[in-house]
Specification:
The complex is a heterodimer. By secondary structure, chain A is an all-alpha fold. Chain A has 9 helices and no strands. Chain B is flat and about 40 Å long. The chains are: A mainly alpha, B mainly alpha. Chains A and B meet through helix 8 and helix 9 of A and helix 2 of B.
């Protein structure tokens, strides 16, 4: 376990020194293969995970987690909230398949908060409430003022007066 | 005990309306629009359906009738809007 942990720390350091996205992806792809092999051949981990889970975990989830981390830095807060909410929902569905300690260790090493421990964020209702709040704030910005409404009312009154004057 | 099972619905309606109406004067404008909008719609309905574009035909119709017909026209628009929202639901 310690051996894998060190490898992940090294990978993290190497990824942080990458200057462009292409190099980042290339380094990640290379190390994922290497790490997959390390975990499969680790006898201490063999008891905790079956072979398929290990491969699935490393090739799929590590890549996804790191790319999500890249997304967190890239997008605006609203988009980021959506991305994180989707991510949490996704990992919640899959988390049961992984050994919990490895999963948590990986999240800690990558500096991502442990969202599994935050049930409120996982809740769909909570997510929709956040999105509703954002849309409400947006709508508040375009709220018409009193003068516009007074003009509308005056327009309607004038129309009624004109109408009755015409029908005399 | 006070029976207020309709309270959440009405407060939700006021919340929706509050984004259209001016801040601080919501209640006044709800009353004004409730009186004027159906009346204007009623006038237009009578002009283009019964009156066929001739104004003096409409001089004998009572105001309350114009308002009530306009109210029905307005309710048709609202029903069509609800139908549209139900069919083309936004997620």
């Amino acid at each position: 376990m310690e051996h894998i942990k060190k490898k992940i720390i090294l990978l993290k350091q190497e990824l942080s020194s990458c200057k462009d996205r292409a190099l980042f992806d290339q380094t990640l792809e290379f190390h994922i293969g290497q790490l997959s092999h390390e975990i499969i051949s680790d006898p201490s981990l063999a008891k905790q995970l079956d072979r398929n889970s290990k491969i699935f975990f490393l090739s799929n989830r590590l890549k996804d987690t790191l790319s999500r981390k890249a997304l967190m830095d890239k997008y605006d807060p609203e988009e980021r909230t959506k991305q994180i909410a989707e991510f949490i929902e996704q990992i919640n569905g899959e988390a049961l398949f992984y050994a919990k300690e490895i999963y948590l260790m990986l999240l800690t090493e990558l500096g991502i908060p442990n969202d599994i421990e935050v049930p409120a964020v996982q809740d769909k209702k909570e997510k929709s409430a956040i999105l509703k709040k954002i849309s409400r704030e947006k709508r508040e910005l375009y709220r018409p003022d009193l003068i516009l409404h007074l003009l509308i009312v005056c327009g309607m009154v004038l129309f009624i007066v004109w109408f009755h004057w015409m029908s005399l | 005990m006070k029976n207020n099972y309709l309270a959440p619905q009405s407060s939700m309606l006021m919340q929706d309306l509050s984004f259209i109406l001016p801040k601080g004067h919501e209640k006044i404008f709800v009353v004004i629009y409730a009186l004027l909008v159906p009346y204007v719609l009623g006038l237009l309905f009578f002009l283009f359906s019964v009156g066929e574009g001739i104004f003096h035909i409409l001089s004998n119709i009572p105001h309350i009738v114009i308002w009530l017909v306009g109210y029905e026209v307005f309710s048709i628009f609202v029903l069509l809007y609800i139908l549209k929202k139900t069919i083309f639901r936004e997620y």
